[in-house]
Amino acid sequence: MLRIAILDDYQDVALTLADWALLGDDCEIVRFDRNLASEDEAAAALAGFDVLCLMRERMLLSAALIERLPALRLIVVTGARVRTIDMEAAVARGITVCHTHAGESAHATPEIAWGLILSLARSIPEEDARIRAGGWQHTVGTVLGGKTLGLVGLGKLGGRMVPIAKAFGMEVIAWSRNLTDARAAEAGARRVDKETLFREADVVSLHLILGERSRHTVSAAELGQMKQGAWLINTARGPLVDEAALIAALRQGRIKAGLDVFDIEPLPTDHPLRTMPNTVLTPHLGYVTEGAYAAFYRDTVDNIRAWRDGAPVRVLAAPKTEEGT
């Protein structure tokens, strides 16, 4: 019997979005609707499973945890860019790691960024809560036309932000370490230096990959350069921003923030960001769409079948005796 664990299925949809019966009758599939937050909890819950199916980077698979999962032989993670699995430890234990395609995430994440921007511009969450509580109009909104959008990162996701901004009548400026004038112009933006971007932008939106060089790209210095009343939008990764500095800036009332990502996820219930009135918060919804999930889970089933047939596909890491495409 092959034991398969589906992790972090918060919405209870994994088993409905793919045909798991294709794996055969000799499989036991168990889904977890909560995050296994500690190593001890995860080790106790997952020790008997042969296959772990991970949703993006919600689950940390450290070398220490991998050592405590003696039955584990295959890890499938949705998406190809993964920083939460110790690949060397997995390979050393004879474990294969496979990934899925990205699905429609390239469209979904910029769309949630604009949802956050529009929510801040017109106080949509606040006014929704007020009208449901029996109240009526209270806030005064801001139009986007004529404002400046500053993009920190102008790759695949950042680039999708540009035509939408133009449709609203916004000017678009951009910065990243390797951005050139030609690439910025091709995308429809104007390249500026980092200081200029934070000083001139009315809305700063982050679209970088998290790495050691990009960690805390937005520090107290950058937050201090932002205009009074400017907005910071983060749909990329929490640690791109110095969280302590952001909380301080929000407490001072200098800026507003629309955040879909955080240093710790799920966000702790007593976290100070939960009580900040000048924020709009969403629980890492950027890639969470039915189409993306369906693609993720179909590929997950396909990966398990291929691995069982001895020809694993979409391999991120594997023992030397295994090959895949």
TrEMBL record:
Any one GO MF annotation of this record: NAD binding
Ranges where the D-isomer specific 2-hydroxyacid dehydrogenase catalytic domain occurs: 18-313
Record key words, sorted: NAD, Oxidoreductase
Family annotation (InterPro entries): D-2-hydroxyacid_DH, D-isomer_2_OHA_DH_cat_dom, D-isomer_DH_CS, D-isomer_DH_NAD-bd, NAD(P)-bd_dom_sf
Signal peptide positions on this chain: none
Annotated D-isomer specific 2-hydroxyacid dehydrogenase NAD-binding domain residues: 115-286
Keyword Oxidoreductase found: yes
Domain of life: Bacteria
Family to which the UniProt record says this protein belongs: Belongs to the D-isomer specific 2-hydroxyacid dehydrogenase family.
Protein name: D-3-phosphoglycerate dehydrogenase
